[in-house]
Design goal:
Largest interface: A-B, 59 and 61 residues
Helix content of chain A: over 70%
Radius of gyration of chain B: 21 Å
Strand content of chain A: under 5%
Radius of gyration of chain A: 18 Å
Shape of chain B: extended
Structural class of chain B: mainly alpha
Largest sheet of chain A: none
Oligomer: heterodimer
Shape of chain A: elongated
Number of strands of chain A: 0
Largest sheet of chain B: none
Order of helices and strands of chain A: HHHH
Order of helices and strands of chain B: HHHHHHHH
Structural class of chain A: mainly alpha
Chain lengths: 106, 175
């Protein structure tokens, strides 16, 4: 039992990624502030990156790390666009509360 | 399997960083103040970058700090300030944390100077192996990026251009 706790392996990193992903998912589903929702999405990205790098380490392959660089890059672009949308929403509605952005709900 | 001291140290470092990351993540999701959430998210990014270094992915760790903590979070904070402008103008500036900030800065300087002037060498194990043949992690990843992953690399650059144009169009002032 003790060696499983002390010998840090891929499983430990995957579980950490899982925890971060779940916390991010809770943030996305629970929070009403659109900026906090975007920050929770970034948390989920980081969880996926931890997974990728952990498996890259286990398989002694650099593909995981290269993919992580791409994920970080795409996340940067997505955060920029998401924040631009929030700014536009704020300009029109004077709020970033996502409950108030419900005009397209049926 | 025997448990060596190096294993215990590695495990301590991992658990410390992991609990710090998870605790900060919980803080991100639960704080009412958006600026607090952003600061805790920066903590998460630093913890994740340290974990990347533990996994011998130094280039990814550097990119994480530069892009995530240094770019994306600055962007987030700008937008948070834009959105909360009325509330922030009501706050008085506080100087009470001046002592804590100076102490932390002094501590940081001591740590960095110790690292710079230290005569300790890194363990030989990290310098051997297939990565060393490529000249280190950064060059190995760079080699992959410019050979096997050249097409995704170029496409991502176009994607960033599109994102930049889109963000400018969305956020520009309406005349």
């Amino acid at each position: 039992m003790l060696p499983a706790i002390v010998h840090i392996g891929t499983t430990h990193f995957v579980i950490l990624g899982l925890l971060l992903f779940i916390i991010g998912a809770i943030g996305v589903l629970t929070r009403r502030n659109a900026i906090t929702v975007l920050m929770s999405i970034e948390l989920m990205f980081n969880a996926a990156n931890i997974n990728l790098v952990a498996f890259s380490h286990q398989l002694a392959s650099l593909v995981g790390q290269v993919f992580t660089v791409f994920v970080i890059t795409v996340a940067a672009g997505e955060a920029a666009i998401g924040l631009a949308i929030i700014i536009t929403l704020f300009r029109h509605r004077r709020t970033v509360n996502i409950d108030e952005a419900s005009m397209m709900k049926w | 399997m025997t448990v060596t001291t190096l294993d215990v140290l590695y495990a301590l470092l991992f658990y410390g960083l992991a609990f710090f990351a998870v605790g900060s993540a919980i803080m991100v999701v639960t704080r009412k103040n958006t600026v607090h959430s952003a600061v805790f998210l920066v903590f998460v990014f630093f913890a994740v970058a340290a974990l990347f270094v533990m996994l011998h992915a130094e280039f990814v760790a550097a990119v994480q700090i530069l892009v995530y903590a240094g770019g994306i979070m600055v962007l987030f904070l700008f937008v948070i300030m834009l959105v909360n402008l009325e509330e922030i103008e009501k706050l008085r500036s506080r100087y009470r944390q001046w002592w804590a900030a100076s102490l932390l800065a002094l501590l940081l300087m001591v740590v960095i100077l110790t690292a710079v002037f230290s005569r300790l060498r890194f363990p030989a194990a990290l310098e051997s192996g297939p990565l060393a043949a490529h000249g280190g992690n950064t060059e190995a990843v760079g080699r992959m990026l410019f050979t096997h992953f050249l097409l995704p690399f170029e496409i991502v650059s176009v994607l960033l251009l599109v994102a930049m144009i889109g963000a400018i169009v969305l956020a520009r002032r309406e005349y």
